[in-house]
Each structure stands twice: as C-alpha cells, then as structure tokens.
Design a protein that fits this description.
The chain is built from 4 helices and 6 strands. It has 171 residues and is an alpha+beta fold. Strands 2-1-6-5-4-3 form a 6-stranded mixed β-sheet. It starts with 18 loop residues before the first helix and ends in an 8-residue tail after the last strand.
C-alpha cells in the first residue's frame, strides 16, 4: 500500500452516482459504522458479534500511529479474534462515542478503499471527570463477503487529541 490516505483514489464518489452505486458505497461505510457502534454499546447483547461482523478473519488494525501521537503504546492487531479481544475486552472499563464523517469511498469489484474522519470520545466508566477525545483519520481496505462488506485493513492516524490518553486503554 502506498500512502493509506491517497485521496485521489476517492475522487469518483464526489460526483453524483446512481442509486446502486450509492447503496454499495453505504454498504462499505456500514462496516466502519458497525465497528464504532459496537464499541459505543459494548455492554449490550450482540455488541461483540456486531463488532466481529465489521472485520474479515485475517483483518489487521493498526492504531499504533494514533497511539504514538498520544504517547501510548499499543500492539499491531492481527486477526479478527485479536482485534475483538483487545478492543472489546470487558476489563477495559471505558465508555465511548464514535462519530464518522467525511467518508470517501472507491469500489473496485469486490474490494473497496475508504477514508473517513472519526471523532472518538473515551471516558472512564463511572467517572467522567477524565476523558480522551481524538480526531482520527482512518484508511480502510474492505472486501465484499457475500452480501456484507468487511474491513480487512484499518490504519488509524491521529490528527489531534485532547485530555488524558491513558483513558483510551482503560487506565
């Protein structure tokens, strides 16, 4: 992958497209929505399954660039199981809200590239006196899995953050 944020690849979605094209782009974006919503509703029944549905079995999630800018260390997450276990761990006592905006999507057959801005608010569960608020740029490679799009590669870079980054990892 060259730059994960190569925006020239997404120019085609800036002009009006047919309904089928827009519906397909929305279906790609839905993988990122499932990822965010499942975290935000982590204690609800079905949240873990919703989260897992966003990823392929061999997915890779790289939050290290964003974490480094925040001064924390996280591993490169490989495989849907590891990604789910790390992010959805019940031991991480945080509450989150994720807001996705400015999506750019390019579909090529059964593959797609997506970039988006994601604002992620993190609060310690039961103690909202501390927070970490991040504005991140996401670069995603997604693939069609029958009638569901799943993320295969997710690269996250932090544009800015405020607050206590230790909150992100539940500290």
């Amino acid at each position: 992958m060259t730059s994960p944020f190569d925006l020239t690849a997404a120019i085609t979605t800036s002009r009006a497209t047919g309904r089928a094209d827009r519906a397909e782009a929305d279906a790609v974006l839905d993988a990122l929505y499932r990822f965010g919503l499942a975290q935000d509703r982590r204690d609800d029944p079905g949240a873990r399954e919703l989260f897992e549905s966003a990823f392929t079995e061999d997915a890779e999630l790289d939050f290290r660039p964003a974490a480094k800018k925040c001064g924390i260390d996280v591993p490169l997450m490989r495989g849907r199981s590891m990604i789910t276990d790390v992010i959805m761990s019940p031991a991480t006592l945080i509450e989150t809200t994720h807001v996705v905006t400015n999506p750019r999507i390019r579909i090529d057959g059964n593959g797609a590239r997506l970039t988006a801005l994601v604002e992620a608010q993190h609060l310690p569960k039961g103690n909202h006196s501390r927070h970490a608020l991040l504005k991140n740029l996401y670069a995603v490679e997604a693939v069609r899995d029958f009638d569901l799009w799943r993320m295969r590669q997710v690269y996250i870079d932090c544009i800015w953050f405020t607050g206590d980054p230790a909150v992100i990892v539940g500290a």
